[in-house]
Amino acid sequence: MKKYHFRLAAVLRVRRIQEEQARYALLEANRAVLRAAEELQLRHEILTETTQQPPATEHATFIAQREQADRLAAAVRTAAGREIEAVDVQRDKRDDWGIHAQRVASLERLDDRARDEHRIEADREELKLVDDLVTSRFGREARDA
Questions:
Q1: Using one digit for the tens of pLDDT, what is the confidence trace for 1-37?
Q2: Which of 12, 32, 108, 117 is the most exposed place for a label (fewest CB within 10 A)?
Q3: pTM above 0.85, yes or no
Q4: What does the pLDDT read at residue 142?
Q5: Total Cβ atoms within 10 A of residue 92
Q6: Exposed, middle or buried: residue 23 (CB in 10 Å: 0-12, 13-18, 19+)?
Q7: How many CB atoms lie within 10 A of CB 37?
Q8: Stretch (H or E) spanning 145
């Protein structure tokens, strides 16, 4: 009996590499979301600390505080936008990884099915060989007796 060989082994190997690359891209996207969330939290904390200070009584100082608060609020909005973008990228990467994982799973199922068929065929051939040996031995013993 010849040895089992999956005809699509090269395709499966490529698909596994693609899945691994997609998984690494998803991991990087997850890290980017975490970094963006930390950045947003930091910016928000700075804004909160700044706005909780008592307002200045002098006009120029009051205006300076308001401008600083406006800049900090803009930084919070920018950080929130980056977090939203990172989450969108993360979702896309997760979908991409899912597609690649599904392709690999499909090929692995085909490989399993083909391997099972090969094993069944090998068992049949072995059984046929045993039957032939037993039948031929029985025939020789009957002639010799």
A1: 688 889 999 999 999 999 999 999 999 999 999 999 9
A2: 117
A3: no
A4: 59
A5: 13
A6: middle
A7: 16
A8: none
Phi/psi for 53 (5° steps) reads -70, 145
- Rounded CA-CA distance 61/71 in Å is 15
> Which amino acid is residue 75, in one-letter code?
A
Q: Which of 1, 6, 30, 2 is nearest to 115 (CA)?
A: 6
Spatial CB neighbours of 85, under 8 Å, sequence gap ≥ 6: 36
139 pLDDT more than 70? no
Residue 62 in contact with residue 56, Cβ under 8 Å? yes
Q: Which two tokens stand for residue 125?
A: 């051939």
Residue recorded with tokens 């910016």: 43
